[in-house]
Write a structure and sequence with these properties.
By secondary structure, this protein is α+β, with helices and mostly antiparallel strands. The protein has one domain. 48% of the residues lie in helices and 25% in strands. It contains two helices and two strands; from the N terminus they run E-H-E-H. It has a two-stranded parallel ribbon with strand order 1-2. The protein is flat and about 30 Å long. The two termini are 17 Å apart.
């Protein structure tokens, strides 16, 4: 499962990334701090 993490708090994004890394079937493809950044990441 590919994941895009979106949260305005850098610490929250880091914690989610570490948690997701413990699951072998999940991969964080990108991070964003807001909806606009998320849309840009999705378009890549």
């Amino acid at each position: 499962m590919n994941i895009l993490i979106v949260d305005d708090e850098p610490l929250a994004r880091a914690r989610l990334k570490r948690l997701i890394a413990t699951h072998k079937n999940m991969t964080v493809l990108a991070e964003a701090s807001n909806g606009n950044e998320a849309l840009t990441q999705v378009k890549k």
